[in-house]
Structures are given as C-alpha cells and as structure tokens.
Amino acid sequence: MRTSGSRIALAAFSALAAATAFTAPAEATVFNQAISVQSEAYIGKDGTLTLSGSYRCEQPSPKGTTQIKATLVQDGVHLGIGAGEAVCDGRDHDWHAHASLSWTPQVHAGPAKATAELQEIHFSGLMPSSLDTVAADEKVVEVVDHR
User: Fold this and answer.
1) CATH classification of 27-145, choosing from 3.90.1300.10, 1.20.120.80, 1.10.10.10, 2.60.40.10?
2) Which of 50, 42, 61 is nearest to 116 (CA)?
3) Can you give the pLDDT at residue 26?
C-alpha cells in the first residue's frame, strides 16, 4: 500500500490543528477588570499632582502582572504618572498616583483630561512579551491647586 505525500501532509496539519485547538492560551485575559478616575485632581503645597480612583481585577496569569497607568493632559502638556502595581484579587481597591510638577510647571488649576488604564504585562522568562490594556476610564477632571 502506498501513501501519498499530500495525505501525510494533511495528517500532520490535522494533528497540529487539533493540538492547537485543545491548548489554552498561556496569556489569557480575565474579563472581570474595571478602573475609574475621580473627577478631581489635586496639586499639593509641595507641587505634587495627585490623581486617584478605584479598580478591580483578577490575576491575569501565573506569568503576568497588572499595573495602573494614569495620565493628565492640559493645554497640550502631557503628564504620565505611574500608579504602580495592582492587587488583583477580584475586590475593589483605591489607587492614587503622584507626580512632581517640577518638569511640567504649566499644569494649573482648571479642567484637564485624565486617563486611567489597567494594564496586564505578560512575561516570557525575565522579559515582557506583551502589554494589554484591559480596562480604561477617561474623563475631564477639575485640577484643584492647594499651593
């Protein structure tokens, strides 16, 4: 009995497709993620801007971590604020992000656009392999100056 090359190729392809179909992705995202930003931001007496809000997340995977990223844009000035690592246990948590205005003294009292993002970072060994924004909130906030 003689087997043709196309039959062997088809059998190999079918085996590969079946193995892929029954393998769960290593970097699967859980969809119980949420984040919000408060409607006011504050400039403290020391010239530090504070944004805050709340979040909820589930652990992304054993090979990942979740972080909060916040930004403020006012009159063309873009201020990125890292709010740190999130605790992902399915419960609601508060977050606060602080940034010195020493490099962006143009930020002032008044309206600004604030964005908060919940980001999953997946690792392959020691290096990050992907970054996914799994929840975001964007709104116009009022910057209150306490200097």
Assistant:
1) 2.60.40.10
2) 50
3) 36
